[in-house]
Specification:
Rossmann fold, 18 helices, 15 strands
């Protein structure tokens, strides 16, 4: 199951973020191969926004691989975010607490934060989450200013979502026979990385030292790019935050059947040019309306297409076909906050255990009895998140590269009276800093909160610089392997490495994965 409501950010983050641009100072000029840019200075960091990395995917370029980005004459204003890619509009409740962002199919732009455009600094490229149906690089939680202050260049970008990003209609193969088709959102991500490789030196970045990092659907994308031969060589390190890893993925045939059904529902049947012309003539509103009626967002997400993704990521990692680069993976202490959004209950996790429930429960209750609710929630966490992070990391280690696993459970002190554990997406504010949460965390941040922010940012940027997150003054974070699994646990009490963290629970999930894939587990 690749289903994941990645843009919810455990309610707290989405509900409190302000989407306004930061205050800016005078224009900052810079020239790249496409033309001149007029960026801005924000808190001592040079920022360039809304840079097109590909041609607008509109008209005949809807459902085509991304084409070369446009050139322009004169200085292009680069001090405001561009529109996000089309996605369902926020609900009434969401609109009360967060204004809608401008949307457009012409959305393939990126943003760069640099502390020194004349240096040669490590580069960190962020990939947002949102279940592959929502999200955008303009989210203030993803403000790269604080990370850039650690001596890295930060890049974020938009990629196509939903039906517009993941659509494997057979007519598309005949229309562009020499291009991959189906995984357009992933192709956008690869195109953005190609742009970074070609242009980031102009911003003071080192194109040979690029780290990709992302959360949820963004973390899943990191794993997809690790597994994609088309992306190999475009990055030197990878960080997958709550990126699953051992879950299944739609096949090309399943995705094709879904796309043909979409055509039939929208008066565009058949596999020929006439039907494709009708599909490309559909309004964005009609496409989104159809998308919102789907029973699962997994229908509009990455697929095994044979080109961008020859195998699902877990299988590619198991077979040693992933990018051989240093790797970090991890998850949060209460990922089960997603269950409500996925219309799941803890009881749903218990039913498949059948006659094995007692045996599994005995393993889970090694440290004390659990309620059915707690048992189900822990099963959810391990099945989707803990096993994927540990499993993929162990495969990376087996391939000869350093890998690191974390478990983030630090709750900001102001939230502890009402919050249990860290929900899905809750680590993002500690990685990027607290700028996106001024009212809930930043204004009430204690010295302990700020110490964890500094710690997480140091780990992430140290890793981007050298492939090793460790550094002066930081608790030691050892590498992991199947023989000696180690997890850096960050919680309210301490930050420390624990050997064999949830090893027995994770082993249960490996058994199910092996039955499904036929692959040998990392242990």
């Amino acid at each position: 199951m690749r289903l994941i409501a990645a843009g919810i950010f455990c309610g707290l983050l989405a509900a409190t973020a302000s989407w306004a641009d930061e205050p800016k100072s005078a224009s900052v000029p810079l020239t790249i191969s496409q033309g001149a840019l007029a960026g801005a200075q924000e808190d001592g960091i040079q920022v360039f926004k809304d840079i097109p990395f590909a041609a607008p995917p509109v008209g005949p370029l809807r459902w085509r691989a991304p084409q070369a980005g446009p050139a322009w004459q004169g200085a292009r204003a680069a001090d405001q975010f561009g529109p996000i890619c089309p996605q369902p509009k926020p609900s009434l409740l969401q609109r009360m607490i967060m204004p809608s962002l401008p949307q457009s199919e012409d959305c393939l732009s990126l943003n760069v934060w640099t502390p020194d455009a004349h240096a040669k600094l490590p580069v960190m490229v962020w990939i947002y989450g949102g279940a592959f149906v929502t999200g955008g690089s303009a989210n203030p939680l993803y403000n790269g200013t604080d990370l850039a202050k650690h001596g890295v260049v930060v890049v974020s970008f938009n990629y196509r979502l939903g039906w517009l990003g993941f659509f494997n209609h057979p007519a598309l193969a005949a229309d562009a026979p020499n291009e991959p088709h189906g995984n357009y959102g992933l192709m956008d991500q690869i195109a953005a990385l190609e742009w970074v490789k070609a242009n980031i030196a102009s911003f003071g970045g080192d194109p040979a030292n690029v780290t990709i990092f992302g959360e949820s659907a963004g973390g899943m994308s990191v794993n997809d790019l690790m597994a994609s031969p088309k992306a190999h060589g475009l990055f030197a390190k990878a960080i997958s935050e709550s990126g699953l890893g051992l879950t299944s993925m739609a096949t090309a045939q399943v995705a094709s059947d879904a796309a043909k059904a979409f055509g039939g529902r929208n008066d565009a049947p058949g596999d020929g040019a006439v039907g494709l012309s009708k599909l490309r003539g559909l309004s964005v509103d009609d496409i989104l309306a159809d998308q919102e009626k789907l029973p699962s967002v997994q229908i509009v997400s990455p697929m095994v297409d044979g080109q961008i993704l020859p195998e699902e990521p877990g299988v590619a990692f198991a077979q040693g076909k992933m990018a051989h680069v240093p790797y970090i993976a991890g998850s949060n202490s209460n990922e089960a906050t997603l269950m409500t959004a996925l219309h799941m209950s803890p009881a749903d996790m218990l039913k498949p255990l059948g006659d094995g429930a007692a045996m599994v429960r005995k393993i889970y209750e090694a440290d004390g009895p659990l309620t059915d609710d707690d048992f189900g929630r822990q099963l959810f966490d391990d099945a989707l998140f803990s096993s994927g992070a540990q499993g993929l990391s162990d495969f990376v280690a087996k391939g000869g590269n350093p890998s690191y696993v974390y478990r983030f459970g630090y709750v900001a002190e102001a939230l502890r009276p009402t919050t249990t554990g860290v929900g899905h997406g809750g680590e993002i504010a500690f990685v990027f800093g607290l700028r996106g949460l001024p009212d809930v965390i930043a204004s009430k941040a204690t010295s302990n909160d700020l110490a964890i922010v500094a710690q997480m940012q140091a780990y992430w940027t140290n890793f981007a610089k050298t492939g090793d997150p460790n550094g002066a003054g930081l608790p030691q974070w050892p590498t992991t392997s199947a023989a000696t699994p180690r997890t850096l646990v960050v919680n309210d009490k301490a930050t420390k490495s624990i050997d064999g963290f949830r090893k027995n629970q994770i082993a249960i999930m490996y058994v199910n994965w092996t039955k499904r894939t036929g692959q040998t587990p990392p242990n």
